[in-house]
């Protein structure tokens, strides 16, 4: 097994949307482009060139309906004909090759050479056992690797994307695999296009088609037909499966799914292969190279020493040197590291954090700062309009959630919507300048779309607005969708009298700047008292409410489309500012406290108003009376100044995605290890730059997910904190397994070394050594991969990312326990011999003594420094008990079964010998516990507790 076996090269198959793995298949984008052109040239004549058809022709050919979509029956029929919208998984390297790769490790090479020479020297049994153990080890590595890969596969399957479609007249979200030709699909910025689409509507739609064409600049899309012979990159009327929506919105009709998509046709040569190796695995690879040379050096020295000074024969000494080498080689360690990482990934998935790239598992353990979005991550994202600020004063709104039940109150008195016509106007604008939908599912009101907009729909219903009537009365002609950068959304409508209106909703400072007066939809406008509005807004924001302003303007003449200039022209009438509550998640409050206790700073980066952010930050326990920096202030700072203030600021308000990138860089410049959350397409650069980019599973765009190392299944900050905790556990467990396995090697190599040094009979033979190495690695050490984490795990400061896996403390522990095992093995051998036992029986006692020491040391290693002399210490990990039971069974067979006796040269032991062996094991336990107690005292005196 190779250290780098956890390297997983995987490609992204966008149609299926899952990441499938393929080994070492690197294809350049250029090569792809060429062949795409070739593919386009010999276009299948049966395929219709939808890009060259008009929208209507395309819809007719596909028997699709723009405004209703397909019916459920049509979908079923088409699914039967076209199959699911998925690509077959790419072929993997065969099992034989994967098995052979297990031998590709320098430590194993040394063992193979040792085995070959042992064979040449005529020691058939010894050579047989060496080869046997190497093969068994490879087989175990092969099985474990398979398990690890399956675990990662299953986790990646959790990330299959969804698509927004129109079916039976309703917009709905479905698994992208269920798309069929003729489906009407909605696209928004950040989406991955789920199938090949003929675009039928676009709104500033730009698509990044690098996967298909190699062109990294986003292409602006349109609905007009293009020439039939246009190259793929020039077909602006199409959106191709697997490409990413960089900006804007669009609607398209599916023309091809699965293997019939452009990407499906070239999938056998799809690029974007990423080979993964974690920093730790690279560290271990280097370690194993160094170790090999040390082992070979010591073995050669022993060989020369034995012949020159002890007068052994060359053949005999060679066997001893082989014994030394095989004793020292930790051949089981790579497999254990792999499986420990894989177990960590699975545990994280159980806690709703899905790892996309393996190095994140390690990086998570050393995170020092988590930068988190506010809305939906730290807060519940269950929005409700609580307050309506108007020119006539404040109106409070009652009711909870999205249910349209509740009423209005002004100055402590109930207010009927009929009494306040302005409320109806506000409801209308809230409903019309809105892309969300409310649904009553199983008695529960849910939002389809943006929760902020959902809250506005509920307000409209509470204000007595009939959505259907209102939309018919004021049909929408155009829209500028909401984007975090410009912080507003605008829609253009006309009524039956031909009057056109522009409605705007957005961040108050943005909208207020566009307004000239305040009033209702039709007349009654008064001058804008900016001071009074700002005071009312500051009060609401101080209570943690999100603020959203609504404004209206007559279009002043016929207008077919909206442009940014139309909005920036201003001249709007402010209708209201809405105060929307979005309380913190209870579990986020707890998670923030846990992070702070673990020495991890939590920073909130939000697009919301500074006062809102500050209030929520206080409710979350982030910090009290701390300074809040706004996006505008970030822009005014140079990098050096930002790096100065970034560590002492916990809240960044009115921040846009590009500020996130600068913040990550500033934090990294200060030596911090940063985890950063994000969801939008523009968050991708910051997510990529962060040490651990974290994307939201629900509201996150595909673009953000692809840039991230980790995806949160529940969009919850608590899951980030949980992943950090698991990251620390994994790293601890890796340290524990290494610190557990290596003393066995030192112990046995030491026994051989001292035997040569003092010229005594070899207390343990090469086959026996290999047996001990293998049996400890597959039973005992594996149990440590399942450890749950020590009680002080989240009270320690974060690990220094530059710290080696084997710290000085661990090296000391390894050598210390190694020497204890030397003493036990040698002692057992010499004692038995001195009391008349045969060499074989004395060797059997030595092997069992070493293993008894290992069994009890396993309890010690459940904690680095805390005592395990308690119930939890012995019974806290059922895998430990299971592994010990298995080992005891194996040792009884090893000692008493005639076949094993013949193979390993062992002999049965009497009960007294077993008792002495047991006593040695208990002694190891107590001695290491005594060492820990000393360390604890020393740490207390020094005021710290490091390992
Ligand atoms: P976070 O970055 O923590 O998720 P956020 O969701 O509040 O915070 P944005 O989505 O960028 O940040 O919103 C910033 C501001 O834009 C909000 O305070 C609100 O005033 C306004 N806003 C939010 N959603 C919409 C929308 N759908 N339409 C119009 N304006 C909106």
TrEMBL record:
PROSITE patterns assigned to the protein according to its UniProt record, in alphabetical order = ATPASE_E1_E2
Q: Look up keyword Magnesium and say if it applies.
A: no
InterPro entries in the record:
ATPase_P-typ_cation-transptr_C (IPR006068), ATPase_P-typ_cation-transptr_N (IPR004014), ATPase_P-typ_cyto_dom_N (IPR023299), ATPase_P-typ_P_site (IPR018303), ATPase_P-typ_TM_dom_sf (IPR023298), ATPase_P-typ_transduc_dom_A_sf (IPR008250), ATPase_P-type_domA (IPR059000), Cation_transp_ATPase_P-type (IPR050510)
Keyword ATP-binding found: yes
Tell me a GO biological process for this protein: proton transmembrane transport
List the CDD domains.
Answer: P-type_ATPase_cation
Q: Which Pfam families match?
A: Cation_ATPase, Cation_ATPase_C, Cation_ATPase_N, E1-E2_ATPase, Hydrolase_3
Stated membrane topology is: Multi-pass membrane protein
Key words, A-Z: ATP-binding, Cell membrane, Membrane, Metal-binding, Nucleotide-binding, Translocase, Transmembrane, Transmembrane helix
- List where in the cell it is found: Cell membrane
**Per the UniProt record, which residue ranges are transmembrane?**
99-121, 290-312, 318-345, 738-762, 768-789, 810-831, 837-859, 879-899, 911-928
Give every Cation-transporting P-type ATPase N-terminal domain span.
49-123
Q: What is its main location?
A: membrane
Q: Which GO terms describe its cellular component?
A: plasma membrane
Coiled-coil spans are none
Superkingdom of origin organism: Bacteria
Q: Which GO terms describe its molecular function?
A: ATP binding; ATP hydrolysis activity; metal ion binding; P-type sodium:potassium-exchanging transporter activity
Homology family: Belongs to the cation transport ATPase (P-type) (TC 3.A.3) family. Type IIA subfamily.
Please report the name of this protein according to its UniProt entry. Ca ion P-type ATPase
* Source species of the chain: Thauera aromatica K172
Source species taxonomy: Bacteria, Pseudomonadati, Pseudomonadota, Betaproteobacteria, Rhodocyclales
